[in-house]
Amino acid sequence: VSAGSRRSRWLWPGLALPGVLWLLVLFLLPLYVVLCLAFGSLDPIFRSPVPIWTPWNWETSQASYVLHHIFGAHDIYGPAIIRTVVFVLIASVLCLAISYPVAYFVSRFGGRRKGLLLTLLIAPFWISYMMRMLAWVNLLQTDGLVNKALSVGGLFPVHVAWLDGRPATVILGLVYGYVPYMILPLYAGLDRIEISLIEAARDLGASRWSTFRKITLPMSKPAVIASLLLVTLPMVGDYFTNDLLSGSPSTSMYGNLINNAVLSVSKVGEGATFLIIMFIVLLVPMIYYVRATARAEGETV
Amino acid sequence: MTAVDLAAPADPVAVAVRRHGPVAWFKNPWRRPRILETITWLYLAWSLLPVLIAVLFSFNAGKSRSVWQGFSLRWYWSDPNLSVWNDTDLHTALLHTLLLGVLTTVIAVPLGVAFALGLDRWHGRLPSFWNVQMLLSFVVPEIILGVSLYFLASQLPVYTPFQPGTWGQVIGLVTFQMSYPVIIVRARLLTIGKQYEEAATDLGASPIGALRRVLLPMLLPAIFASSVLVFADVIDDFVIVKYLSSSAVTDTVAVKIYNTARGAPTPALNALATLLLIASLGAIVLGYLGYRFMTRGEGKSSLESFAGQL
Lengths: 301, 310
Prior knowledge:
The structure holds 2 protein chains of 2 kinds. Chain A has helices spanning about 1-40, 60-70, 80-110, 115-125, 130-140, 145-150, 165-190, 195-205, 210-220, 220-235, 240-245, 255-265, 270-295; strands at about 40, 50. Chain A is built from 13 helices and 2 strands; from the N terminus they run αββαααααααααααα. In chain A, α4 (about 115-125) packs across α7 (about 165-190). By secondary structure, chain A is mainly α. In chain A, strands 1-2 form a two-stranded antiparallel ribbon. The longest helix of chain A has about 35 residues, at about 1-40. Chain B has 16 helices and no strands. By secondary structure, chain B is an all-alpha fold. In chain B, about 75% of the residues lie in helices and about 0% in strands. Chains A and B meet through α1, α3, α4, α5 and α7 of A and α4, α6, α7, α8 and α9 of B.
């Protein structure tokens, strides 16, 4: 008995061990490498990044360069950061404005069509993100179908260059790209609300609107917050939507700052600093999400 | 006579309008939510029509992606240089995408299932810490994970296995995808509860025997659903794959689209994307049918619970 119980005591940690090691080497270690590069130095001849592995020797010259160009007088990075906040806010609000009615309708009134509606809602999940962006690149070309539709078959010539650095196009791309990721968790949250509560409110004379306002909306708040986070967090780091639908520095966002810095050898340290700033800023919403998820799993964190 | 007239509805038309007119319709508390219904169908059209148009133009006979010039399979295989079939770059990208999908799924799912079981049954501060790390790796924006993995690969000596290239991409993708099976399997463990396992051990099974012969079979639908999810998510991945790509040979369909969409693409790019779409839809249909088969007799609509797994 004792041999068996001793073996079973190590069964669960043993099963977790490969995953633990994997996260240690490929999630935590890389984050440490980012720190060592951000607080590293530059090779004076080749201008290539030289990481400093010991925290007590860290240099702050590259990090302070970045900070001075975000805030101080030379704020070359400031506009991109403000743009990121504005674009992401507008796109997130638009996502919610689209997702909530759709998720609400499908969960409450889907009826016999629920299966079909769900299949159609899930469909964008299985279509490559890049393909969905390609579809809009095709439509928004100067001689594309959007301009053709706007010109009503050539009645008024419309030659809007949608893809030449327009904020509206980038926001449309973000909304189009991320809205499916919001609808499904929102649907799951709304679908979990007990229908008997809503029926009770209606039976007691509450109108549809006040039932919604007093029952459905408060009860769906956790799902709204979680789905907003699921959409907002990746949007902040998105650079490819911008590259595909605009490509102009006049619309570039924080993700573009990171990607452009990382890809040029002498700016790797700056890229690493951008990454750390992003990680710190997003840590609070990320931890909120993690705690909410862990609580749903019945674990206290 | 006049009294009856007064009691009777004065004007049937007015009553009909009052009962069926726009105001009455608006005031009817049990009306069908036409506005919500319209929004839903408009959204669905907006979300799916652009992609359908892109698919349509992959069958265009000419080079345009906005003027229909007749139906042909030119961009799939008949064009001698530019079709997916004849352009090595394009079909290499498709095959490489599918290869990454298979390799990542085969590694990430067993790793994640074991991790989920371990985290669920091993109690204490240490497993909670790693659970938080796992959830963090799930919610962290992909660019943070992609760039940090790219930095790690660029700092490791060349004889280590984690270098840009196919295996580097697979290892990076496993890191990002492992959390899916963990979350899905843990959710399933929560609904199963401990009683089946306890019954098995009471009847004399060893903990490992109970795990293998009772728990794992019950987890099969969740394992299966997470495999489908990981596969479909990997073939859609862009950021990690791009950062850990070593050359054009390890570019996937998503990277190809990113590199050429704003250049001068031909409908062959649409054809390539369409082929990937077909692969993805094939996986999901197979996944759904398999899931339905495994969860038969569980009552709840299998589409809904399958969707819930996502």
